[in-house]
Amino acid sequence: MKETQVKAHASAIDVTTLEQMISELGCLYGIEKLLSGEDQTAEVALQATARILPNAACRGRDCCVRLCVGERTYLSDRFQESAHGESFPLRSGDVMAGSLEVFWTEQKAKAGGLTDSERELLITAADRLGRFLNQWRMEQALRQSTEQLRRDHEERQKAERWLQAVLNLSAVIAGCQTQDEICRMVVEGIRGQMDLDRCGLFLSDPYDPRFYGTYGTDMNGKTTNERHYYWDIRKERDIEGLFAGIPFKTGYPSGNPEPKPGEIDAGSNLIALRQAGKVFGIISVDNRITHRPISASQLYHISLLAEVLGNALQIAGTRSELRDLIEKANRANEELADFNHVMVGRENRMIELKEEINELLAEQGNPPRYPPVWSDAETDLNEWNSV
Predict the structure, then answer these.
(1) Residue 89's closest CA among 73, 101, 107, 78?
(2) Helical pair 116-174 and 2-36, crossing angle rounded to 10 deg
(3) Could you give the C-alpha distances from 125 to 5, 47, 76, 88, 93, in angstroms and in order?
(4) How far apart (Å, rounded) are the C-alpha atoms in residues 336 and 330?
(5) Per-residue pLDDT reduced to its tens digit, 217-265
(6) pLDDT tens digit sequence for 321-356
(7) Cα–Cα distance between 248 and 254 in angstroms, integer?
(8) Residues in the chain with pLDDT < 50?
(9) Closest CA to 66 of 129, 18, 12, 22
(10) How buried is residue 346: exposed, middle or buried, by Cβ count under 10 Å (0-12/13-18/19+)?
(11) SS3 readout for the chain
């Protein structure tokens, strides 16, 4: 009888141990399946793991689990922190990535806490979680690196396109004959080739401290003549930096037209045009029509037009002055030709009158009053040669 009871007790222990082993194997399999899945995020996998672990470690009755990874925390169902617990480190390579914390009830504490098999299971789970976190961090770093490379490649492509646009626009500007033509080409060229909705160009006036408008863009994307507009930009707030050396200023409040109530991204971006260290113009750009973002690279490439634009405006100004001088010289020549024509006609008439008088005197038998014209000319020539 006693032997039968011992065998029955041993069988019960074997069954319990077997059930525990099956539970542990099921837990490890479930964790492996969760952490190996590619269709879910790391957060989902960690949360599901936190819910599975208590069922294997304590059959879900006497303990709960908390996973701490970085600043994130994942709790098992019915989590309640107690005075009885143990923490298992989660190592991602040589870095401490977090911890697996297990808490159990007073009843389990009186029974001795975690068994060796439960502790071994939790150590194995912590090791697997550490390897998962290491792989996840490496994949995340790879994704970030790939994304950064993609963004850098796109930025390089945009920069190359904008640089080519600047070169094309510079060539067109250099071929313009007048300052008015240059200003219009700058406004329309920047808008068309630099992916911008609106552009305006202001130039300094040597006889006025204010900057005067040239051409701009309305809210329909059409070019407008703004020669009547003067802007005392030096008196504007937060604008001193443009005259102190910074290439551009972003987010400047738009004034033409006034922003509508609730309108977003209504600010302008101002680019200083410098030559020999002096600001001779301001380009204002915005995307108030499409509300697309404007990058610093776009603004920087627009500022590269400054030297070409400054030289082109100077050359066009010199051409204009030269044309004015030529026109003045032509008018003076025309006036001189008219004067010479009048004077020559007068002299010819005087000669004719002298000849008529001499002829009348000859008819009356009197000597001529005036010497022959050619005789005067010969006398003048002899006097000139003697000198």
Answers:
(1) 101
(2) 0
(3) 37, 14, 15, 9, 15
(4) 10
(5) 999 999 999 988 888 887 777 777 888 888 888 888 766 667 666 666 6
(6) 788 888 888 888 888 887 777 777 777 778 888 888
(7) 15
(8) 2, 5-10, 12-13, 377-378, 381, 384, 387
(9) 129
(10) exposed
(11) CHHHHHHHHHHHHHHHHHHHHHHHHHHHHHHHHHHHCCCCCHHHHHHHHHHHHHHHHCCCCCEEEEEEECCEEEECCCCCCCCCEEEEEEEECCEEEEEEEEEECHHHHHCCCCCHHHHHHHHHHHHHHHHHHHHHHHHHHHHHHHHHHHHHHHHHHHHHHHHHHHHHHHHHHHCCCCHHHHHHHHHHHHHHHCCCCEEEEEEEECCEEEEEECEEECCCCCEEECCCCEECHHHCCCCHHHHHCCCEEEEECCCCCCCCCCCCCCCEEEEEEEECCEEEEEEEEECCCCCCCCCHHHHHHHHCHHHHHHHHHHHHHHHHHHHHHHHHHHHHHHHHHHHHHHHHHHHHHHHHHHHHHHHHHHHCCCCCCCCCHHHHHHHHHHHHHHC
Shortest CA distance to 158 belongs to which of 194, 198, 199? Answer: 194
User: Around Cβ 157, how many Cβ atoms within 10 Å?
Assistant: 10
Helix axes 373-386, 305-363, angle to 10 degrees: 120
Per the CB < 8 A criterion, the answer to whether 299 and 322 are in contact is no
C-alpha to C-alpha distance for 229 and 210, rounded to whole angstroms: 10
Retrieve residue 204's tokens: 């300094």
The partner residues of 203 in beta bridges, in order of sequence, read 212, 281
Is residue 32 within 8 A of residue 128, CB to CB? The reply is yes
Pair 57, 65: CB distance under 8 Å: yes
> CA–CA separation, 66 vs 69, rounded Å?
10
> Please, are residues 65 and 32 in contact by the beta-carbon 8 Å criterion?
no
Residue 32: which residues within 8 A CB-CB, separation 6 or more? 128
Residue type, 185: M
Q: What is the arrangement of strands in the sheet containing 248-252, beginning at the earlier edge strand?
A: 230-231, 208-213, 198-205, 278-286, 268-275, 248-252
**287 vs 217: CA distance, rounded Å:** 11
